[in-house]
Prior knowledge:
The protein folds into two domains: 246 residues, Aspartate Aminotransferase, domain 2; 121 residues, Aspartate Aminotransferase, domain 1. By secondary structure, it is of the alpha/beta class.
Amino acid sequence: MTIRSFNPPVRTLMGPGPADVHPRVLAALARPTIGHLDPAFVGMMDEVKDLLRTAFRTQNALTMPVSAPGSAGMETCFVNLVEPGDEVVVCINGVFGGRMKENVERAGGVPIVVQGTWGRAVDPDQVADTLARHPNARLLAFVQAETSTGAQSDARALAEIARRHDCLTIVDAVTALGGSPLEVDAWGLDAVYSGSQKCLSCVPGLAPVTFNERALDKIRARQTKVQSWFLDLNLVMGYWSGEQKRSYHHTAPVNALYALHESLVMLAEEGVEAAWKRHAHHHLALRAGLETLGLELIVPESERLPQLNSVAVPAGIDEAALRARLLSRYNLELGAGLGDLAGKVWRIGLMGYSSRPANILLCLGAMASELDTMGYRADAGAAIAAARAVLDQAA
């Protein structure tokens, strides 16, 4: 057997991530590779940090991309901030809250779970009550944008509660960054992590993180070594900080960082608030089309994440079969449900470069056509017209 060069099919990515990568970002990937300690590359690293501060809406000095996927961003926060025996309140309202709990345990901490409902935001009253009952807790961890359900929690309110109880916050903003309001400084968020492959229109493999001085004070005061050498911020900071000088820590993913730089330049050109408005506007157009088809979004409107839409599968429809048809016939990828929602929902992403009118109309037309052939009456023309009516309005 002869193995030849791999040429992937051209897909439209409207699942939970990765999202479509903008052509400018793909072009940036192909630029000449230089050394990761080259002065030109070091200068670009400083620009990436500045651009990330703009995206996160922060002045935090320690703002950088971890050289690994979003899950490593999560682990960076937990292994640095959690010491053995630390009590950590963890909010679980989907898959990724559960992963937070696992990180606490692996770091030797003691998780105190606030169990929420899948498809709903974290309940601030539940959090306040839990913190009142556990006065020794010093960390509150929650997911702002729960990718497994499409629920968006009130990060500002949760951070305010944490501060009243002298707790630091660890916030999962993997699906939020660049897609919906995220105000790290204004909301007083202490440690936040994200990913490159969603609303930033970039390739997978990098995890932007930001830590404020309160979080860094806790890291500096650790009594034990960070369990991960690679993710130990005391070491990584020497690579990402300094005036045009870096200590060697690891070989950075040079071309992937070119891509992140380009994606952040594009976000700055569009404007962060304008990007939030674009995602919200396109969500309303998709919602109008889905509702015209008689399909239901499972998250209440006030708690809905615009860029990740969980749609209930109608009775009698094989959700996996529909996704397979969309992929094979339209090169269109939607996401399946996870955990408690497995087999019950489709997850439709409108993230970054995927959040554009052509994708919305393709998705609605393709879904309607295939649902109709599967025995569910669906009018593609009406769904597309409903979406177009919203798209034609000013964002």
